[in-house]
Amino acid sequence: MGHFGSNIKLLRKRRGRTQDDVAVALGLKRPTLSGYENGVAQPGLDTLVAFSRYFNVSVDTLIKTDLGSLAESQLSQLERGYDVFLTGSKLRVLATTVDRENEENIEMVSEKAKAGYRSGFADPEFIRVLPVFQMPFLSRQKKYRSFQVSGDSMLPIPDGSWVTCEFLQNWHLIRDRHAYVIHTLDDGVVFKVVENRLRKDGTLRLHSLNPVYEPYDVHINDVREVWKFVNYISSEMPDGDTSQQELVRQVNRLREDVSSIIHRKQTK
């Protein structure tokens, strides 16, 4: 599995931990850990996530980057919580499709397809079977994908709507109080308004437009993809008593709430 075995061995030794130490911390048997380090056993997804959290390094970096080839300064940065995966280096490879004119398609991830997308998002064969469409007014220089919204957490955007988003390569560019589709290991695809806390504690705080739902945090090591909201399409008419101005007021109130949260945290 790529460089996984040598990487966890390197990180373990740099921390001064024995195989017994790490095995106990992760609930593994020492021979199992030894098998991972020697490349004779392959971990499952849950185990990969456990190693990612233990070393505070993304799964993608653990698998795809030869940490032994990095300079000491780079390794030190990594161990302090700065993972180059955040900045969208060559580590993040997006599976995509093109039309007959070699133009990027906009793939559609329906509610039914979300379960498969959770694990198949990087598999070109899975992406290839998704329905596609084009929006001629969108930039040809950017990559877009459309995800179907489920539930009422992002009202007034109704259940069943399709939100079209732009692929975000550099996660440090996530803007506070803007909407994104966040693809995580634990929760799959979620559509939320984001508070960027990466430089503070390596997390994103996800807010719903519907105030019934409480915000929650996800660690960046659990994130697989970030898509920036561009527009949405819905077959539903807005409620008769919900004017355009009221919709704007609802969004502005949420932005003010998030801004207030951020301000309070900064002044503590």
Structure, described:
There is one protein chain. The protein folds into 2 domains: about 5-80, lambda repressor-like DNA-binding domains (434 Repressor (Amino-terminal Domain)); about 150-265, Umud Fragment, subunit A (Ribbon). It has 10 helices and 9 strands. It has helices at about 5-15, 20-25, 30-40, 45-55, 60-65, 70-80, 115-120, 125-130, 200, 245-265; strands at about 105-110, 130-135, 145-150, 160-165, 180-185, 190-195, 205, 215-220, 225-235. Strands 2-1-3-4-9-5-6-7-8 form a 9-stranded mixed beta sheet. The longest helix is centred in the C-terminal third of the chain and has 24 residues, at about 245-265. It is globular. It starts with a helix and ends with a helix.
Number of strands: 9
CATH class of the largest domain: Mainly Beta
Helix and strand content put the structural class at alpha+beta
- Calculate the terminal CA-CA distance, rounded to whole Å: 44 Å
Calculate the mean pLDDT score and round it. Answer: 85
General shape: globular
Widest sheet: strand order?
2-1-3-4-9-5-6-7-8
What is the helix/strand order?
A: HHHHHHEHHEEEEEHEEEH
Continuous helix count: 10
